[in-house]
Design brief:
140 residues, mainly alpha, 2 helices
Length: 140
């Protein structure tokens, strides 16, 4: 247990939440890309049919262009959000790694301090034991 554990948990949760958000945005982009492709198919089919029949299709073409524009804008917004989420994830991961490094250093210092205290205790016991076995006149 280190004093950094709470911060680490916080950043791990934040990174997990960002991962979920990235997945959602990627799915949204995938869906919008599929809608764009379907829109292109319908556009081509309807244009071919409009050429074959003598109907005015200006209103329909305007509506299709507007729909395509709306899909493209939504995909662009999703791409922008995805890029921001990736930047956020990168920053959070960097901070988390820094905290992990500090926690490891703290743990190493605590282990080293405990080992030094244990060694000092052993040295004291050894010195006391050696002092008991030394003849009294030879201690100097």
């Amino acid at each position: 247990m280190t004093p950094f554990d709470t911060a680490l948990r916080l950043y791990r949760r934040q990174i997990d939440a960002i991962k979920v958000s990235i997945t959602v945005e990627m799915e949204r982009i995938s869906t919008l890309t599929a809608r764009t492709e379907a829109h292109e198919v319908v556009w081509r089919e309807e244009q071919a049919a409009a050429r074959a029949l003598p109907f005015a299709s200006d209103a329909w073409a305007a509506r299709m262009r507007q729909e395509r524009s709306r899909i493209d804008a939504a995909r662009s917004e999703a791409q922008t959000r995805l890029e921001q989420l990736r930047r956020d994830a990168s920053a959070a991961y960097g901070t988390m790694r820094s905290i992990e490094t500090a926690a490891e250093r703290w743990q190493d210092d605590a282990t080293r301090t405990a080992a030094l205290a244990e060694q000092a205790g052993i040295d004291d016991l050894s010195a006391a034991r050696a002092a008991r076995y030394e003849p009294r006149g030879r201690l100097a």
